[in-house]
Amino acid sequence: MKAGVGAPGRAQIPERTLRTDRWRIYPLTTGAILLFFIAYATVRIFMNKWYWAPEEHYLTPIYSPCLSESCVPGSSHFGTPLPEIPWFLPMAIITFVVLAGFRGTCYYYRKAGYRSLFMAPAACAVPEPHKKYTGESKFPLVLLNAHRYFFYGALVFAAINVYDAVLAFQGKDGGFGMGLGTVIILINLVMLTAYTLSCHACRHIVGGRLKNFSKHPLRYRYWTFVSKLNARHGQYAMISLFTVILTDAYIMAVSAGWITDLRIFN
């Protein structure tokens, strides 16, 4: 028994879709971006080096916070409560689990992943190749409902990123300083904050359970602000991928000695 568009009683149209626009561009480009980011992040977390530039006080967000005894001197801003990490395990495992979990369960990335990687469906009015639809009610997709809990973890890491950005304003002589890396870190901080605060879970937590906004004017203001950000959540999600890569690649290059940080002041 055929299902979906091939079910009995449905119009038997031989064409996969009657759309004449370039609908393949979105799933192809989005899929390429997601796969590139996944590959880049996987390689970087297993490198376990070139994440801290001591003279410039730059710490890449992929390895922040660095909490193990394996961390290079100066990179552990919150101490080293974890023991030395074996060479075959990534030092940034906690950061990776929380932030990858936050993005992986994100409503926007779920849509992007379904359309670009699983073709479920690739676009509107384009049938998907799967014979049946079970939604996200079964394992392992039911785990995606943990998004709101990953959001709380992402808030903690957002605060840590702010702390790292403040440290990036230290000069080489210990006073106030600023370099090109500082600017890149700030741009990344803005985009990560915008992505985190525009999250659907954030919007729900701020005002989703309120029955009367007039009795909660402050939370209504927060909800209104988050709702405006939420309209561009997808844009922040994709842009922040590039800013994270740019920030990490720049700090890696400075830490490895491939380039010299362009100092703006001190």
UniProtKB/TrEMBL annotation:
Keywords: Membrane, Transmembrane, Transmembrane helix
Name by which UniProt lists this protein: Succinate dehydrogenase
Native source species: Actinophytocola xanthii
Residue intervals passing through the bilayer: 25-47, 87-109, 149-169, 175-197, 236-259
